[in-house]
Amino acid sequence: MKIATLLTAIWFLVVFSACLQEETGESEAEQVFEVPEEKTLPGDAESPLQIPPPPGEVGEKAAAPVKETWRWVKEEGVRVTDGSVPYAVKLEDGREGVRLYYCSEGGILSAVSEDGLSFKKEPGTRLSASPGEESIVCDPTITEINGGFRMYYKGADGPGGPGESVHRIFSAISEDGLSWKKEGVRIDSLKTPDKGWASVPEAVKLPDGRIRLYYVSDEGPHGIATAVSRDGLSFDREPGIILPDLVDPSVILRNGSYIMFATSINPRYLPQGIYMLKSMDGRVFELNQKPIIEGDRDRGVFDPAAILLEDGSIRVYYGEYPYRGAGAVIKSLLGKHE
Fold it and tell me: For residue range 147-178, what is the model confidence (pLDDT) as tens digits?
């Protein structure tokens, strides 16, 4: 998500959301995080850190993202108490609000909210686990298709990190966002450079209509890879790991640029937390080295799910995972551009 014990604990908490319990206690007080769009590096007071393009990358050099400053406020309370790994979509059935898909014991569930803050769990399971390659299902991401929706999700054949289980990316379709029919494997990590680990997908519809999947790969180094598809079913792997040591991608398009939120799992690279990145082409990203929220000694923060609000602000839902003690919950941050 590198002392062996810490890495094992983080992998267990990130990948698997079983046996989740409700968190008790009072809501945290509002906290403010001001994140500049540039981060100076040692010995270079002017240049923000840029992730270089992977080997073999071709095409014109992307223009530099417009520099902005965002102010992040940690919102009080808990959004969902019985799950983790959220994905947020705006409701389009005449209601104003948000549906959160999230992982819980046995599969993928959902909850709805009129204001994006107070959620009511919807009955039933959106997608259930099944023996074999999908003995664990989690990490939903959704795109619109003609007549409904397509969900991409992680299916794992068992618990554990890379080398202990195989993660593949699957898909399912739905007309109403509630009842889903499985379609099969989209990225088989045993047949790609991902070395048995294609996990935590994030689907983005590109301006030309193609679908790009951002996902976590173990190609080496462990990090975020991409694949594209014209029909949403057959994906071609793009070269290399574009963001090493980062996982849990969430991507939105805003004013012609890609904004990604991702989690650091390597404290020698970045402190554990959720980070904001920007790109003009969706492959070469500029990273803010100051997190929008940082984990602490007792709790880790993972799995961001960003949604663009009508006023141009961004709400990021995320899972808070205790290293010990109570179960995982979903909380949120609100970011405003200044």
Answer: 899 999 999 999 999 999 999 999 999 999 99
User: Which residues have a Cβ under 8 Å from the Cβ of 170 and sit 6 or more positions away?
Assistant: 134, 137, 152, 153, 154, 155, 182, 183, 184, 185, 186
Structure tokens at 240: 């290399």
**CA Rg, the chain, in Å?**
19
Side-chain half-sphere exposure of 110, counting CA atoms within 13 A: 25
The residues, any chain, with a CB within 8 Å of residue 294's CB and separated by 6 or more, are 271, 272, 273, 301
pLDDT single digits (tens) 94-144: 456 999 999 998 799 999 999 999 999 999 999 999 999 999 999 999 999
Collapsing DSSP to helix, strand or coil, 128 comes out as strand
92 pLDDT band (50/70/90 cuts)? confident
Query: What residues pair up with 244 in beta bridges, in sequence order?
Result: 223
Q: Which tokens is 278 given?
A: 């920007």
CB atoms within 10 A of CB 101: 25
Token pair listed for 169: 């990316």
- CATH code, residues 4-337: 2.115.10.20
Q: How confident is the model at residue 32 (pLDDT cuts 50, 70, 90)?
A: low
| 186 and 193 Cβ atoms separated by less than 8 Å | no
CA distance 285 to 64: 9
Predicted model pTM: 0.83
Query: Which distant-in-sequence residues (6+ apart) come within 8 Å of 43 by Cβ?
Result: none
